[in-house]
Amino acid sequence: MSAAAATGTYSPAAAAGDKRRERREELRRHLAEDADWPRADGRSFHDCRPAFMQTGPTTAASGSAYAEFGKTKVIVSVFGPRESKKAMMYSDVGRLNCNVSYTTFATPVRGQGLDNKEYSSMLHKALEGAVMLHTFPKTTVDVFALVLESGGSMLLLETLLLVIINALDFAFC
Questions:
Q1: CA–CA separation, 119 vs 86, rounded Å?
Q2: In a shared domain, residues 26 and 105
Q3: Does residue 107 sit in the same domain as residue 161?
Q4: Could you count the other beta carbons within 10 Å of the beta carbon of residue 73?
Q5: What SS3 class is residue 30?
C-alpha cells in the first residue's frame, strides 16, 4: 500500500461525488415517502407557481393582455386588422407580423439574441392557422410581445400563448 493511500488523502472529486450520492438518496427517500419537501423557489412539492392575468392594459391596442406565471412576466398587444402599408401590392389574404422582444433587464444576457427571432417565428407559425387572414384582404395584424421578466424554461412560451389568445380574443370579438 502506498504512503498516500495509508494517510488518507483528500480528493475534492470524491467528496463531491459522495455529496451528490447522498443528495440523490435523500431525494429518493422523500419521493418514496411522498413527502412535501420544498423546491428551490420555496414552493412545496405540490404547489403551483403563482399566476396573475389582466386584460386590456394597453388601451391603444385592439386587444392586449398581461400575465405573470412565477417569475415570468409578459405583456402582449395586438393591433389590427388595419390597412396594410404594403397596400400597393394586392393580396387576397392579410398579413400577420409577430415580434417577441425582451426588456434589457428580463434576462441576465443582454441584447436581442436568437431567442427573439426564434420565438417570433414560432409565434407566427402558431398564430398563422388561428387568425383567419383570408377574411381580411389587404390588411395587417401586428402582434407585439414584450417579455418583462423571464423565469426560464418553457414557461415563457406557455405564458406567451395564453396572453396572446386572450389579446386576440379581445381584438377580434
A1: 24
A2: no
A3: yes
A4: 20
A5: helix
CA 15 to each of CA 19, 27, 29, 34, 147: distance values in angstroms, whole numbers, following the listed order: 6, 18, 21, 28, 41
| pTM for the structure as a whole | 0.68
Each residue of 16-68: pLDDT tens digit?
A: 677 888 888 887 776 656 556 677 777 777 777 788 888 888 888 888 888 88
Q: What is the Cα–Cα distance from 143 to 83, expressed in whole angstroms?
A: 15
Give, rounded to a whole angstrom, the gap between the first and last alpha carbons of the chain: 82
Would you report the helix, strand and coil content of the chain in percent, each value rounded to 5? 35, 25, 40
Q: Does residue 104 have a pLDDT over 70?
A: yes
Spell out a b/e string for 96-123, using b for 16 or more CB atoms within 10 Å of the CB, else e. Answer: bebebebeeebbeeeeeeebbeebbeeb
In 3D space, the residue among 59, 51, 61, 69 whose CA is nearest the CA of residue 145 turns out to be 61
User: 127 in helix, strand or coil?
Assistant: helix
Same domain, 125 and 149: yes
- Residue 4: inside a domain: no
DSSP class of residue 151? -
- The answer to whether position 5 is within a domain reads no
Predicted confidence band of residue 91 (pLDDT cuts 50, 70, 90): confident
Phi/psi for 148 (5° steps) reads -80, -35
Q: Answer yes or no: are the C-beta atoms of 98 and 120 closer than 8 Å.
A: yes
